[in-house]
Structure formats: structure tokens, C-alpha cells
Amino acid sequence: MKHLLILILALPLFAVVVTEPIQRGSISSKQNFNGTLNFNQKSRLASESEGKVTKLYFDEGDYVKKGQVLLEIDTQILDANIKATKASIKEQEFSLQRANLDFKRYEALLAKHSVSKQKYDEFYFQKLQLEQKKISLEASLEAQYIAKNKKHIKAPFSGYISQRSVQVGEWLKEGSELALLINPNKIDIIIHLPSSFIKNVSKYKTVMVTINEKEYKTKMLGILLSGNEKTRTFPLKLRLLPNKDTFFDGMQARLSLEKSSSSNVLLISRDGVIKRYGKDVVFIVKDNKAIMVPIHIIDYEGKKIAISSSELKAGDKVIIKGNERIRPNQEIRK
């Protein structure tokens, strides 16, 4: 027992601590909101005509460029019809040449009163019919070329093939789904906000969002007018700015918006605030002693806290390490 008493009396009466000066400045607290990535430009490609797939130039996961041919549909029957129409147009041109020559002769005879006006009119309207027939055939040929062009399915924009729904040899009907094409460079983020945060939205303002623990620049496109009646939230639409990373439809994104702000307040480290007797307090060093001071917490920002106290001022030394074990008025060694 005598030895134990000696050990207790040998304990130091001062505490070794780390301090930090109180600063005066501004602070703002933020609230996080989660949203979802959506590819803005994605298209379910479909066939505009029917026929058998003869060639396929893409697979799932491939990157394709705008205008690139993705597949070809059999055109044998269409090619035969085009050939027949071309021949009909040529035949019509010959008939029209002969009709024009005949019409010029009748025009000369009419001037000499050597042919009746009725006969002249018959040749005139015959020539008009041939001209209109040629126009009709040329229009039919143009329609057939358009139909043939639709047998070559092309990518409407550059992007990745996410799904493929067709095989070589498969018979397609008009409207048959071929593939899902996604543009990876146009990505929107939808985040639902309470009405109290709408004031923080500024169209075309650049803000940072966090995706997979990495920050990315986005541009605010505005609040969509259709809100959620149950949650009383409103969708904010953001456009992810170009970057080289890879994203997937449906990924989560997090946005931090300012909830409140305070200016010209006292700022200290979070480590400086502890609980004593159920109250928030700090210890400051004054005359080499630890003085306990009750405080009121105003706000948080990262590792800093905004506080108020009539007993504190900027420059006071707050204990940020060792404050958990010290007693009021205990001597301090830094």
C-alpha cells in the first residue's frame, strides 16, 4: 500500500496538449442528394422494310459511327423491279421521241390548214399522256431506290451497341427491333430535390457530382415541372460534361447543395469540441491553465465547426488534442 501511494503522488500535475487558434470567417453546411445516371440519347433501332437479313456488321459492345451500315436485307426482288422500271422508262422515252416528231408534223400541217384541229388535238393529248407516264415511272423508280436504301440499316448516331436482337438469315418484318444503340457522350443525371432547395438551382451553372467516389463536372439544365406528389420533391436535370471515364445507365450520382451559411462567426476544429456534463464545451489555454468554456454550435462544414460564445474571441488557443483527459484549471504544457 505504501508503494502504491508513492506511484500516485508521482503522477504529473500538468497535461501535454495540442492547441489551435480560433479563427473568424464564414461557413456553410451542405446536404447530399442521390440521383441516377441516364443516357440521354439511346435508340431502339428497327427495320423500315421486310426481308431476310443477308449481312450483319455489328455485335453487342461494338462502337459504331454515325452513318455506318449495320446490316443488309436481301434486295433481289427489288433489284429486279428496279431493272424493269428502268426498261419501261427507256421504252417510254422512245415513244415520247416519236410522239414529239409526229406532233411537230401535225403542228406544221395545222398551220397550212392541211389537217383538222381535232386530229391535231388527239396527237397533242397523246404526247401529254406519254410525258405523264414517264414522270410516273421516274417517281416509281425513285421510290424503289428509297426502298433499297432502307434495306441497308445505318447507325443514326455514333455510340455503342448495348443489345442485338437479330441474326443473319432471320426474316424481318417492318418495325422489327434490331439493336439498342447508346450515345455514351450524352449523359443526364436526375436528382429529386425538396422545394426548399430549388432556390439553389441556376440554369447552366456548373456543379460537381460524385460518381464512384470521384468528382465530375456537370451543368444544371433546370428543374422539371413534374414533381412527385408523395415525396413533394422535384426532379433536377444535370448534364454530365465530357470526360474520358466509362459510365453505365442507372449508376448512382451524389450532389451536395448548400443547406445554410453563416458569416463572421468563430471557427474551430471539430476535435476541439467535447461533451462535459451533457453540454458542448471547449478548453482554451489561459495563463497556462485549461479553462472550460460552454459553447453553442451554429453549423458544421467538413472538419470545422462554427460556434458562438461570449467568452471566446478570435486568436484564443483551443485544445484539439488531449482535451478528453484534462480537468478544468489543470496546468497545461504544450
Determine the structural class based on helices, strands and strand pairing: alpha+beta
| Largest beta-sheet details | 6 strands, antiparallel, barrel
Helix fraction by DSSP (H/I, runs of at least 4): 10-25%
The share of residues in extended strands comes to 35-45%
CATH top-level class of the largest domain: Mainly Beta
What's the name of the CATH homologous superfamily of the largest domain?
Efflux pump adaptor protein, beta barrel domain
* Total number of beta strands: 23
Shape: rod-shaped
- CATH architecture designation of the largest domain: Beta Barrel
Biggest sheet strand order reads: 3-12-15-14-13-16
Termini separation: 34 Å
| Helix segment tally | 3
Number of domains: 4
Q: Which spans have pLDDT < 50 for at least 5 consecutive residues? A: 1-11
- Any idea what the radius of gyration is? 42 Å
The CATH topology of the largest domain corresponds to Elongation Factor Tu (Ef-tu), domain 3
Query: Helices and strands, in N-to-C order?
Result: HEEEEEEEHHEEEEEEEEEEEEEEEE
Q: Could you tell me the mean pLDDT? A: 87
